[in-house]
Specification:
It is built from eleven helices and 13 strands. The protein has about 325 residues and is of the alpha/beta class. It folds into two domains: about 170 residues, 3-Layer(aba) Sandwich (Peroxisomal Thiolase, Chain A, domain 1), CATH 3.40.47; about 150 residues, Thiolase/Chalcone synthase (Peroxisomal Thiolase, Chain A, domain 1). It binds oxa(dethia)-CoA.
Length: about 325
């Protein structure tokens, strides 16, 4: 009799993360704009963030995180056969940061592309990599969330400049027929709310000009409070639906690794799941919101500190510009 076909899944075999060494605390920002450590901590949970140096760009952070992930996987760069970089603060519009990273890693002839889904970008990349691996199209895929967002901040706008930080996180995916790996991914977008978080200048709508500079269109703008409300509702529904569709009870979850934008959003999501905060990975107090890099940086820290172990059920979720939101459920 024929053996039943085994399910092929993709599995994250290694992670790596890197953040620039330069720290900017809330107290440092108090000296730049009219804000306070107390306001920032109370409203966001953030205490400090890392910032790139003048000559550092997203690909530099991606390169460092990727080298660590490769080392942790025991692989050489040539073992990778696709690269996806999720970023909204790429080195430049083109060539892609993924192509720049490919060159830095000295790999040739692999597909490499950037993906823009803002803070949901890492989970979007994971979902695409998962599809390619499950269909055995590619064997080993490097996905990286890399952001140098502090380069796009208006240091006169206290509603945004206190929120963001720089960093990168990488993961390497491979096929497995074991009972583990990526169980599901769910991706969403609502372009009708695109004006909630924007960077309007420098594209074909508002090409760089004296006027775009004057209007500060090369900086991030956000309708924070409106975004907050949509994020809480969308994420609460997302995590409940993700678990339900996979027949997993919240009590079976080992850890929630959320996008690190705002502690109050994360608490609301955990509370909707009835999850105690000790089952939630938090590091936004040290990194701020690093957009597409936030989940892989947090995931890497969870793996390194033993908070994620073989067999654990891990839930990733994110919400960001687009608007976009996404989840991934993984059996580690
Ligand atoms: O990662 C992508 C997705 N992004 C998010 O998920 C972010 C979602 N939004 C948020 O995290 C929060 O909305 C913020 C942290 C951005 C803002 O918190 P909030 O509780 O929604 O505050 P608010 O925007 O309603 O502002 C409240 C007050 C305002 O003053 P008035 O009008 O009440 O006098 C602001 O001007 O706080 C003021 N404010 C500040 N005060 C001191 C805004 N920013 C600051 C600041 N320091 N940095």
């Amino acid at each position: 009799m024929k053996e039943p076909a085994k399910t092929i899944r993709s599995r994250i075999i290694a992670t790596g993360a890197y953040a620039p060494s330069k720290k900017l605390t809330n107290f440092d920002i108090e000296k730049i704009v009219d804000t306070s450590d107390e306001w920032i901590v109370e409203r966001t949970g953030i205490k400090e963030r890392r910032t790139c140096g003048t000559h550092e760009a997203a690909s530099d952070l991606a390169f460092e995180a990727s080298k660590i992930a490769l080392k942790n996987a025991g692989l050489k760069a040539k073992d990778i056969d696709m690269i996806i970089v999720a970023s909204v603060s790429t080195d430049m519009p083109f060539p892609s940061t993924a192509c720049i990273l490919q060159d830095r890693l000295e790999i040739k002839n692999t597909p490499a592309f950037d993906l823009n889904a803002a803070c949901s970008g890492f989970i979007y990349s994971l979902s695409i990599a998962d599809s390619f691996i499950r269909t055995l199209t590619y064997k080993r895929i490097l996905i990286v969330g890399a952001e140098a967002l502090t380069k796009f901040l208006d240091w006169e706008d206290r509603t945004t400049c206190v929120l963001f930080g720089d960093g990168a996180g990488a993961a390497i995916l491979e096929a497995t027929d074991e009972d583990r790996g990526v169980l599901s991914t769910k991706l969403y977008a609502d372009g009708s709310l695109g004006d909630f978080i924007t960077l309007e200048g420098g594209g074909s709508r508002n090409p760089a000009s004296k006027d775009t500079l004057k209007k500060k269109q090369h900086f991030i703008k956000m309708k924070g409070n409106e975004t907050f409300k949509v994020a809480v509702r969308a994420l609460e529904n997302l995590v409940i639906d993700t678990l339900k569709e996979n027949n997993i009870k919240p009590s079976q979850l080992s850890i929630l690794i959320p996008h690190q934008a705002n502690l109050r959003i994360i608490q609301a999501t955990a509370s909707r799941l009835g999850l105690s905060m000790d089952k939630v990975m938090l590091n936004l107090e040290r990194y701020g919101n690093t957009s597409a890099a936030s989940i892989p940086i947090a995931l890497d820290e969870a793996v390194r500190t033993g908070r994620v172990r073989a067999g654990d059920i891990v839930l990733l979720e994110a919400f960001g510009a687009g608007l976009t939101w996404a989840s991934a459920l993984i059996k580690w």
